[in-house]
């Protein structure tokens, strides 16, 4: 009997009792290799001593101070650190406690920016199908996961969705990646024409689509075209780097690899690495200045904004990543992981695609590699893979609805940045066994 309303009411969850490096141990003493960092969170693995020491030191001084009374050294130092390493022009930080809150803040700040600029007619948001931006009302509304939106549709603000970049299924056979990217850019242009560009607030996108598509990057040139279109219409580009950011793809920010800088950028997960709930919204100087010279305040706040313990944890996480040159390890082990996945699954009858960047890799499962037909959703293959993986002491992040919100299955991998060769090999071996067992049942 449990009094917790768990994610799945019927499911029995093992009790996690300790963690060390890339492993979590349950109450029976069984170890699980954390190949997904939970949900792409635990970038330093578990129980990193330097982060814990920094959190202890913060607690010895001050556990909490409400931001309507005080700032704290932890919040200031983390903001300095984030601004110093941010994409061009993003030099202010608004703190929240997770990814959904970061997206909510982005949507509201974008709207307030235009109200203060004297453009209150701007009210439309454009995002993409097959995306996830969080679970709170605003974030759910911009997200493109139909099955999660359906029950709440009457409560959601109106949003508009265009196609994601989904090369494996949606690039035509005779189309180059560049031509595909241009086609998608034209679709965005067409949507702006339909709504009237002067009525649009922002375009929201994940640079590498995480949980909904399974680590799908854009094609070359796509984000440059998106940036150009946003600028032409004076609309803001909001990048959701909650999952793909903070080093996961081998650069601190995923958008660095696209050669663009957004107007607003949501980060979370790897920011605090799971040591504390924290997210942040990074904003362009022009947005900050508009508010500074206008109303003087962002009309949005939370009780736990800038929590000092969370800021101290995140600062320690980011310092360890730099000190230990862990982004180099993300690139090195990311290449190793991709190579090993291709060796194991390149000819697998039920794996249609291996994709991703850095330590952010996805496998799409198909019933037929030639036709790309997906498995019958009634089989719940993604849940079976998770079950078989857990039975083998492996944590991965499978999901269904890859193709259209209903059909399709994929497995997402996002191991900690501290992972080594042998641990990658262990992950691929266990995953191979888990997938084989899941499709056989
Ligand atoms: N945005 C993206 C891209 C995500 O992957 C997630 C969570 O998985 C969120 C937003 C929401 O973050 P949170 O679950 O911390 O609210």
Model description:
By secondary structure, the chain is α/β, with parallel strands linked by helices. The chain has two domains: 16-48 and 325-440, Aspartate Aminotransferase, domain 1; 51-323, 3-Layer(aba) Sandwich (Aspartate Aminotransferase, domain 2). The protein has 14 helices and 17 strands. The chain has helices at 37-40, 49-61, 73-84, 99-116, 137-142, 146-149, 167-170, 177-195, 222-233, 285-293, 308-323, 326-345, 381-391, 421-440; strands spanning 16-20, 23-26, 31-34, 90-96, 124-128, 160-162, 200-205, 208-209, 216-217, 236-240, 264-267, 279-284, 351-357, 360-365, 394-395, 397-400, 409-413. The protein has a seven-stranded mixed β-sheet with strand order 4-12-11-10-7-5-6, sandwiched between helices. The chain has a four-stranded mixed β-sheet with strand order 1-2-3-15. It has a four-stranded antiparallel β-sheet with strand order 13-14-17-16. Helix 3 (73-84) runs parallel beside helix 11, helix 8 packs parallel to helix 9 (222-233) and helix 12 (326-345) packs parallel to helix 14 (421-440). The protein is globular and about 60 Å long. The two termini are 30 Å apart. The model has no long low-confidence stretch (mean pLDDT 98). Pyridoxal-5'-phosphate binds at residues 39, 98-100, 103, 132-135, 206, 210-211, 240, 242-243, 268.
Residue fraction in strands: 15-25%
Structural class, please? alpha/beta
What's the mean pLDDT score?
Answer: 98
Largest sheet report: 7 strands, mixed
CATH architecture grouping of the largest domain: 3-Layer(aba) Sandwich
Task: Supply the number of structural domains.
Answer: 2
Question: Which small-molecule species are bound to the chains here?
Answer: pyridoxal-5'-phosphate
The span between the termini is 30 Å
* Beta-strand segment tally: 17
CATH class of the largest domain: Alpha Beta
What is the CATH topology of the largest domain? Aspartate Aminotransferase, domain 2
CATH superfamily of the largest domain: Type I PLP-dependent aspartate aminotransferase-like (Major domain)
Low-confidence stretches: none
* Helix content bin: 25-40%
Q: Kindly report the spatial arrangement of strands forming the biggest sheet.
A: 4-12-11-10-7-5-6
């Amino acid at each position: 009997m449990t009094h917790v309303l768990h994610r799945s009411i019927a499911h029995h969850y093992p009790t996690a009792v300790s963690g060390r490096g890339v492993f979590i141990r349950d109450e029976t003493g069984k170890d699980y290799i954390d190949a997904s960092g939970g949900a792409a969170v635990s970038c330093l693995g578990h129980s990193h001593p330097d982060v814990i020491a920094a959190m202890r030191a913060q607690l010895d001084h001050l556990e909490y101070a409400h931001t309507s009374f005080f700032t704290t050294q932890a919040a200031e130092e983390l903001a300095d650190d984030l601004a110093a390493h941010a994409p061009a022009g993003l030099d202010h930080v608004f703190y929240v406690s997770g990814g959904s809150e970061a997206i909510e803040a982005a949507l509201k700040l974008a709207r307030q920016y235009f109200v203060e600029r004297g453009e209150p007619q701007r009210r439309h948001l454009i995002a993409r199908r097959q995306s996830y931006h969080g679970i709170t009302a605003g974030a759910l509304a911009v997200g493109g996961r139909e099955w999660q939106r359906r029950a709440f549709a009457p409560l959601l603000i109106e949003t508009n969705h265009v196609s994601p970049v989904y090369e494996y299924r949606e690039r035509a056979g005779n189309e180059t990646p560049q031509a595909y990217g241009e086609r998608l850019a034209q679709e965005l242009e067409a949507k702006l024409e339909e709504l009237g560009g002067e009525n649009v607030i922002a375009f929201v996108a994940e640079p590498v689509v995480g949980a909904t598509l399974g680590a799908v990057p854009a094609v070359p040139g796509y984000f440059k075209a998106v940036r150009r279109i946003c600028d032409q219409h004076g609309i803001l580009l909001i990048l959701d780097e909650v999952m793909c950011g903070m080093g996961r793809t081998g650069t601190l920010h995923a958008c660095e690899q696209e050669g663009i800088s957004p107007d607003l950028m949501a980060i979370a997960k790897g920011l605090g690495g799971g040591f504390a709930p924290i997210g942040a919204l990074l904003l362009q100087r022009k947005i900050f200045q508009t508010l500074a010279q206008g109303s003087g305040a962002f009309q949005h706040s939370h009780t736990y904004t800038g929590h000092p313990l969370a800021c101290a944890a995140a600062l320690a996480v980011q310092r360890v990543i730099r000190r230990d040159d862990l982004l180099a390890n993300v690139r090195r082990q990311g290449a190793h992981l991709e190579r090993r996945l291709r060796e194991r699954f390149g000819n697998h009858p039920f794996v249609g695609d291996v994709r991703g960047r850095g330590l952010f890799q996805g496998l799409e499962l198909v019933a037929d590699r030639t036709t790309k037909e997906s498995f019958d959703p009634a089989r719940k293959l993604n849940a079976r893979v998770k079950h078989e993986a857990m039975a083998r002491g492996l944590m991965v992040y499978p999901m269904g609805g890859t193709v259209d919100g209903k059909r399709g299955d994929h497995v997402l991998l996002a191991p900690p940045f501290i992972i080594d060769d042998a641990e990658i090999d262990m992950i691929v071996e266990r995953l191979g066994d888990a997938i084989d067992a899941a499709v056989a049942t």
